[in-house]
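Quarterly update from the structural biology core.
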Amino acid sequence: MSEGVEKTSRNVPTADRVALGTFPTPLERAPRLAAAIGLAEDRLWIKRDDLTGLGGGGNKVRKLERALASARRDGAEVVVTTGAAQSNHARLTAAAAARVGMRAILVLSGAAPDAVTGNLLLDELFGAELRWVGDVDQPRRSAIAAEIAGELADSGSRAYVIPFGGSDADGALAYRDAAVELLEQLPGPSSSVVALGSGATMAGLVAGLGADRVLGVSVGAVADPAGVVARLVGEVAAPIDGAVLRVRLDQVGAGYGTLAEGSAAAVRLAAREEGIVLDPTYTGRALAGLIAAVEDGSLDGDEPIVFWHTGGLPGLFGHAQAGELVRG
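Predicted structure, tokenized:
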């Protein structure tokens, strides 16, 4: 077997993966946060996928274990991916590439900033090449990534394109693995709440736990979040109608890159009740959605609620409105 590549022993279809992270991640009670949002102290758990180890941690590490294995099988020397300027996925792709000795090219929206902060600082520290492509949408970023891979091929260097957010069958399977991991830590029925960005994290959890057990809180990263998740579920499990998915759309605010009021309040609450830091774009919105679901009765009964902390801390330090988090 190739060095650094191992066969997964989890209860999912066998696939190669590159060992990048530290698993299983902890599952911790959050009694003070639970009480603060109106739950019994023993009902709320936090699945600490911010503690996956590599490159500042986060949910993308699980996905990249499979993506980098696929890149190796293809004989790639370079990985190319896309994202917003403060993309957590781009940062961890750069770290993963460094770990396995590959080049990383990151296709990012916008223009190079005057100050390098947050994820961008780490991108450069990990040695990634940044390609700034202006104010373009995700389909155009993906097209540019494909063009770059073609140019590399023409020059004799094989590239592997990892999709936006690592959201493909590999990414969904990684979180089907994570669902099995959760069930080993917390047997029995529970409800999982997770940020819904590019879709594969929620899709994998739905594939492993069931649509009725997963609440996704959209962060505004894609136009049709339920449709994206349904498509990805269908790639790794039985086809599913997006209408049966539990998706909240009420925490996007003015848009993906902005600081939503509910997210800011949730970030402050988690920090002040549990000493846990969320990020404004993903996990802050996810916790705000969880709080709203408790308030409106969408999450009720006596079953445990698992909040998936998917990471993103470096992005907080690069967020244009980060200072507003301490003013509430």
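Residues 138-154 form the longest helix (17 residues).
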